[in-house]
Design goal:
The chain is mainly α and about 280 residues long. Helix content is about 80%, strand content about 0%.
Length: about 280
């Protein structure tokens, strides 16, 4: 690394960005069971198991309420076709609550399969590092003391913006894992609503929302792939311009691309929900 303070400041900011981008690739390809060594998942499984008892109790309640609201009289319930339909509904709802964990993991694995397919088709399986062009480094190192003063201001602002964007980006991806855990922990309660016809819309909405969280990983991977293609073709450096102009143009274009990536990742939830009609 260069001994120049300005170059070091810029490179440190880019190293932070590259590190967080690499973490995102790692996080998107992880499963809830392996995240953070599986310690969080074990606690969530215990909570899910405890909520199952509540879910089964609510299952009966939702079923009774559904029968009362959809059946006009006891005579209607006695009809074989109607009784069979009610029995099938109750049995399916009980299976969904009992095997809710398996159902949710299956939905997550489907989304992970889409992520793996996208990565294999694009042939991009990792983040492309963003580095400073050698021509710019040489131009900065050749600057005198007074010429370096405006460069200090530009690099301080640019480095700060890049660092802040790095942490915003990684926090958004971590937030997806938090949502996956929250949905899994309380799943038995909303899934129990499938027992009653009037309340089944709650269960459907829950599964759609959970699927949307799973599919956020697809949008995140696509965003990172597009950014990696941008990073593989860095902004052209005009060597005839002054050093401060070179740095200003380079950082400006780089930050713009980073803002697009961070904005897309932050809006991944909204994008998927709009696609699913939520």
């Amino acid at each position: 690394m260069s001994d120049n303070w300005i170059v070091q400041n810029l490179q440190n900011a880019l190293n932070t960005w590259n590190s967080k981008l690499a973490d995102i690739w790692n996080l998107v390809t992880q499963t809830p069971e392996t995240f953070k060594g599986g310690a969080i998942w074990n606690v969530i499984k215990n909570i899910h198991g405890g909520m199952q008892a509540i879910g089964l109790a609510l299952l009966v309640l939702f079923f009774v309420v559904g029968v009362m609201k959809t059946c006009g009289s006891l005579t209607e319930i006695k009809k074989p076709e109607h009784a069979l339909r009610l029995f099938i509904r109750f049995a399916i709802a009980k299976i969904v609550v009992t095997y809710g964990m398996d159902l949710m993991l299956a939905l997550f694995r489907i989304s992970q399969g889409i992520v793996s397919k996208i990565m294999s088709i694009s042939k991009i399986t990792g983040a492309t590092n963003t580095t400073l062009p050698s021509q710019m480094i040489k131009a900065i190192e050749d600057c005198g003391f007074f010429e370096s003063i405006p460069l200090w201001a530009v690099t301080l602002i640019g480095g700060l913006v890049v660092t802040v964007l790095s942490f915003i980006m990684i926090m958004t991806v971590y937030g997806r894992f938090f949502k996956l855990y929250l949905y899994t922990a309380i799943a038995p309660v909303p899934l129990a609503t499938f027992a009653g016809e009037p309340t089944q819309s709650i269960g459907k909405s829950f599964l759609k929302s959970y699927s949307a969280v799973c599919l956020e990983g697809v949008i995140i991977v696509l965003s990172c792939i597009i950014f990696s293609l941008f990073a593989s073709s860095p902004p052209v450096v005009d060597t005839s311009a002054a050093a401060v102009t070179q740095v200003w143009k380079y950082i400006g274009e780089l930050v713009f691309n980073m803002l697009v990536l961070v904005g897309t990742i932050k809006m991944s939830d909204r994008v998927v929900r709009e696609m699913m009609g939520l």
